[in-house]
Amino acid sequence: MVLNHIRGKAVVFTGHSLGGAIAALAALHYLCILSSSWAYAPAPPVLCVTFGSPLLGNKALSKAILREQWASSFCHVVSQHDVIPRLLFCPLDAVPAHVIIGMQLQQLPMCVLGMGRVGAAVASRMADTNQEALRQLIQEHAGVAAIEQKLDATETRGGSPYWPFGTYVLCSPDGAACVDIPTAAVQMLYATFAARCMPETSTVSPEAAHSCYGNLVQSMPQHLLLKRRLGALPATAAPAVSNYDAGISLALEASGITGEATEAAPARQWLKTSKHVGRSPNLNCASLSIRLGRITPCRAQIEWYKASFDGDTGYYDAFKQRRSPKKFHKANMYRIKLGQFWDGVLSMLDTSQLPHDFHRRAKWVNAAHFYQLLVEPLDIADYHRHNLHRTRGSYISHGRERRYELFDKWWKQKGCTGTGADSGDTSTTAAAARRSKFAGLTQDPCFWARVEEARDQTESAKGEHDAAVLAMKLESLREFERYSSELVESKEVSVDVLAPQSSYSLWVEEWKELKLRDEVRSILFQF
Questions:
Q1: pLDDT tops 90 at residue 295
Q2: What pTM was computed for the model?
Q3: How far is CA 1 from the centre of its chain?
Q4: Where do the TM regions start and end (predicted)?
Q5: What spatial distance separates the first Cα and last Cα of the chain, rounded to whole Å?
Q6: Portion of the chain with pLDDT greater than 70, in percent
C-alpha cells in the first residue's frame, strides 16, 4: 500500500538487522515496479541503506541486480564486530539452535518476553556462554568463503548459498571503507571480523556490536574529514610506493585492520585483486569489439546472398530449397560462424566476463538485433528443410535458439518499437512509424516460421470434415492474414517476402482458393 502511494517519487528505504533485509526486499520490489512503469524515461532515484543486515539472496540474485544496474541503490553499513551480517556465511545447520534463541532473547524487549529480571538473567547468561563460540564459528566459515573467492570457487562447493550485493560500508572506531565488488565484500567481511577476534580485543559483546550503529553514523563524518588529510600515512601502514597503495593502506586502517594484524597482508592483496577483476570485463568487451569487426564480412556475405534472390523466390526459400548449391554452402558456412560468435558472446556474459550492463549497450543490442533479423530466417529454413517441425514441433516453441530469445529481450528492454517476435501481436506494428519503402529486413524475425505454420494449417483445413475443428483453423488463419497484411501495408517486411515464388506469396494464393469453398465461406460469414 505504501509503495503504491509513493510511486514515481524518490525514496530512501532503511532498516536495522532483520529490518534491513526487509528494507532491501521492499526496495527491490519498488525497483521492479519502476522498471516496468518507467521503461522509456529515467526512473526516480531509489536508495536503500541497511545497518547490520544479514545477507539476502544467493549469487544469482546478486548477478541479476548487477545486470539491472541496481547495485548502486544499495548501501549496507556493517560494524567490525557485528556477527549478524556474517552469520549466514555459516551453513544453515551449523549454527546451534540455542545460539539463535539467545540472540532472539537479546533482540526482544523484556516486557515482550514476560520474564522480567529472570528473562534478563537467562539472556545474559546465554550470551556470555556462547559469544566466543559464535565468534569462532563465524570466523571459520567466513574464512572458508573468503578463500573460495580467491580460488574462484562457486557456491556449490558446500558453503553458504548467500551472497552479498550492493556497496558495503565496513565501519570501525577508526573510520569506514567502502567495497562494491561482491567477491571483495566477502573477503573484507571476514578480514575485518577476524582482525579483532583476538583475546585482547574481543571484549565487545555481540549485542553491543549489533546495536552500535547510531554512534558509528554520528562519528563517521568526522572520520571521513580526517582521512582527507593525506599529508602523512599512518604509522602502522605498510610503506607505500604510490598513491594507489596509500589509498589501500588508508582503507585498511579505516576498516579496522592495523598493519600488525595477521589479516593485513591478504586483505591488501584482496583489495588490489578486486580492482583488477573490475577492469577485466571492460577489456574483454573491447577485445570482443575487435572480433565483431572481423566477423562482419560474414554478415555482408549473407546480405549479398539475400540480394541475389530478392526478385525470384527470396533468400528464405532459396536457402530452404538449396538453390545454387555453391551459394548455399557459403551462406550456410557464414550462418554457422555467426551463430558460434554470438553463442560465445552469451557464454562470456553468463560467466561474468563482460560488463553487467553489456546487454543494455546500444552498440551490442543493435548488432545482435541486425544479426537476428538477417540470419534467423535461415535457421528457420534449415529447421523446416530437415522436417524438424514434424518431429520436434513448431519452430517458435521447440526449435528456436536461446540466443534469439535473449536478443528479443534486449531489444524490448532498449525501448524500441517494432513487431513482437514472440506473440504475433500487431499493436506494435500499428504504433510504429510508417515507412516510405519496404524495410531492408523483415522486422519480425519469426515471420517465416509463422508463414510455414499458416501453410500447414491451410493444407490441413482443405481435408478437414469436422466443422468445429475447421472453424478453429480458419479463425487462426484469419488472424495471420490480418497480421501479415498489416506488416505488408506498413512496409515492415523486406521485398523478398513479396517475391513471386516466396512461401508467403504461395500461401496467399492457397488461402484465396480455400476461402472460395462453400463450407469455408459459410463459416467465414458467421465470423
A1: yes
A2: 0.63
A3: 27
A4: 21-41
A5: 44
A6: 77
CA distance 455 to 315: 18
The sheet carrying 175-179 orders its strands as 11-16, 46-51, 74-79, 167-172, 175-179
Q: 186 or 206, which is more confident? A: 186
The residues facing 43 across adjacent strands are none
Mark whether 17 is an active-site residue. Answer: yes
Cell numbers at residue 142, please? 567466513
* Nine-digit cell string for 209: 556490536
Which of the residues 82, 174, 180, 379 is marked catalytic?
82
Catalytic residue among 17, 73, 255, 490: 17
Higher pLDDT, 229 or 382: 382
Residue 236 has pLDDT above 50, yes or no: no
Assess contact for 31 and 71: CB atoms under 8 A: no
**According to the model, what pLDDT value does residue 428 have?**
42
Q: Report which residue type is found at 119.
A: G
Which one of 76, 210, 384, 389 is the catalytic residue? 210
Cell numbers at 171, concatenated = 565501519
Q: Which residues contact 126 (CB under 8 A, 6 or more apart)?
A: 98, 101, 102, 105
Cell output for 283: 577489456
386 is catalytic: no
DSSP H or E segment with residue 75: strand 74-79
- 412-419 long-range contacts, CB within 8 A, separation 24+: 413/39, 413/359, 413/360, 414/360, 414/362, 414/365, 415/39, 415/40, 416/369, 418/443, 418/492, 419/443, 419/444, 419/447, 419/487, 419/492
Question: SS3 breakdown of the chain: % helix, strand, coil, rounded to 5?
Answer: 65, 5, 30
* Count of beta carbons in the 10 Å neighbourhood of residue 488: 15
